[in-house]
Amino acid sequence: xxxxxxxxxxxxxxxxxxxxxxxxxxxxxxxxxxxxxxxxxxxxxxxxxxxxxxxxxxxxxxxxxxxxxxxxxxxxxxxxxxxxxxxxxxxxxxxxxxxxxxxxxxxxxxxxxxxxxxxxxxxxxxxxxxxxxxxxxxxxxxxxxxxxxxxxxxxxxxxxxxxxxxxxxxxxxxxxxxxxxxxxxxxxxxxxxxxxxxxxxxxxxxxxxxxxxxxxxxxxxxxxxxxxxxxxxxxxxxxxxxxxxxxxxxxxxxxxxxxxxxxxxxxxxx
Length: 270
Description:
Strand 2, helix 2 (about 35-45) and strand 3 (about 50) form a beta-alpha-beta unit. The protein has helices at about 10-25, 35-45, 55-70, 95-120, 145-160, 180-195, 200-210, 225-235, 245-255, 260-265; strands spanning about 5, 25-30, 50, 75-80, 125-130, 170-175, 240-245. Helix 1 crosses helix 8 and helix 4 (about 95-120) packs parallel to helix 5 (about 145-160). It is globular, with a radius of gyration of 19 Å. It is an alpha/beta fold and about 270 residues long. The relative contact order is 0.14. The longest helix has 29 residues, at about 95-120. The protein has one domain: Rossmann fold (3-Layer(aba) Sandwich), CATH 3.40.50.720. The model has no long low-confidence stretch (mean pLDDT about 95). The chain has a 7-stranded parallel β-sheet with strand order 3-2-1-4-5-6-7, with helices on both faces.
């Protein structure tokens, strides 16, 4: 039976993917960074749920060791854990930017780095990196998150070249708007880490907070991501990149055909 480790399964995409893959007969090791979320996962029927804060490198090692003890191999690893720090870049203090990168980039890199020698030794493996449509294009007010996803793109594109002679496949997911707690959590991070009242962009922030429940164009359900992950598991040679949601296809197309100046005119309206 093929197995997969999924990071960031407390809610949203991670949880939906864990449920979907389990129903498809995949052995799922879902992980979450809080003990109460691990307990919730076990109550939902995921007996192999484990604690994993991706910023804790000891947690990463412990999860890898536990899976290898049970199954001898790690077939697929889905680096899904991450969050979005909202705010204009001039308002994001450097230590807050570092926190964004600790989870979205450095934790992902450490997990990947620890997995490579294991997958090389077993002779195969697949690593799925959750990027974003914002790893392709940038949107105002999301600079910290944009930068973290651009970093994932660079790391993964390079690593595919580094591993060209190994049977280890890396795939990027460029996911657009999907139903989850992502936007709600991003607004919380905005309130927690940005001095809204004293910001030049105060009115923009307040409008964003007030409109946080408005309908998002081209939004899809989290199952869209789960189905792509399943297709990667099934593929003999998965693609290096998968676009998910119409928004990603549309904005990816604009990125290819428009000049930077014209693209900026489009993006500043979103």
